[in-house]
Specification:
This protein has helices spanning 10-38, 43-65, 77-94, 97-105, 107-113, 118-129, 147-160, 166-189, 214-235. By secondary structure, the protein is mainly α. It is built from 9 helices and no strands. 65% of the residues lie in helices and 0% in strands. The protein starts with 9 loop residues before the first helix and ends in an 8-residue tail after the last helix.
């Protein structure tokens, strides 16, 4: 199957674009604010890396805007593009002062930050409610990612008040990452690729159409990178001062 015609309601488009833009600006603001206060000598390098990551993301988003991801044939463009954003962004972060900024931010704050996951879960739920995405992609189907933003504040508070140690944050991140991988697998296997496994109606083709491409191109890489960084900080047992 090559292309599918899909109509995305204006409200669904608006809430996806606005929430994505808000989240991006919030991350940029909180990162630059902490960077200026704690790493003033590294801010130019941090900004350069952030601009490079943003540029590649915008480039991929532009490809989706012109319909590059609307073709569901092999090789699967959407998963490969999403993976490239994740891998390239993570590589740039780990090899730059941006990683030091994230270490200062702290593994427990990375956990609390995951409350943003309510945003894509809400978007998917609205898509299902309006009949443009299969119910298998929500918490009523085969997606349990809603448990991540629900449990994040509890893990954060338990750690801050020393009821649990960094090992619990490590376990939480690993379990959440495995759950996310499961959800991503379901999403890809319910899309109309030649290897489609889940026979659902409608198929999950919506993630190949702008602006719903923000789900695999922005929300998914951000979630994976956050968990990977949380795992790395927990393994290394990095500590930060109270903000």
């Amino acid at each position: 199957m090559n292309t599918i015609t899909i109509h995305i309601p204006c409200f669904n488009q608006l809430i996806t674009i606005v929430s994505s833009l808000f989240l991006y600006l919030f991350i940029t603001w909180i990162g630059f604010r902490n960077g200026k206060n704690q790493f003033p000598n590294e801010m130019n390098e941090i900004k350069k890396i952030w601009i490079k990551i943003t540029f590649y993301f915008v480039f991929c988003l532009f490809l989706s805007y012109i319909g590059f991801l609307e073709t569901f044939k092999f090789p699967p463009r959407m998963p490969l593009l999403s993976f490239s954003i994740t891998l390239i962004s993570l590589y740039m972060i780990l090899r730059s002062p941006l990683y030091e900024l994230i270490k200062y931010f702290g593994k427990e704050n990375l956990v609390l930050f995951q409350v943003w996951r309510f945003i894509p879960e809400s978007i998917i739920f609205i898509n299902v409610f309006t009949g443009i995405q299969p119910s298998i992609m929500t918490f009523t189907g085969n997606n349990f990612d809603i448990l991540v933003p629900i449990s994040a504040p509890m893990i954060y508070l338990l750690f801050r008040y020393k009821f649990i140690n960094a090992n619990w944050i490590l376990v939480w991140n690993v379990v959440a990452l495995l759950g996310l991988i499961h959800t991503l697998s379901v999403g890809v296997l319910s899309a109309p690729y030649p290897f489609q496994l889940y026979d659902v109606y409608p198929s999950n083709a919506i993630v190949g159409y702008f602006p719903m491409t923000l789900i695999p191109l922005f929300f998914v890489p951000l979630a994976i990178i956050s968990h990977v960084l949380g795992i790395l900080l927990s393994i290394k047992n990095e500590t930060t001062e109270s903000k």
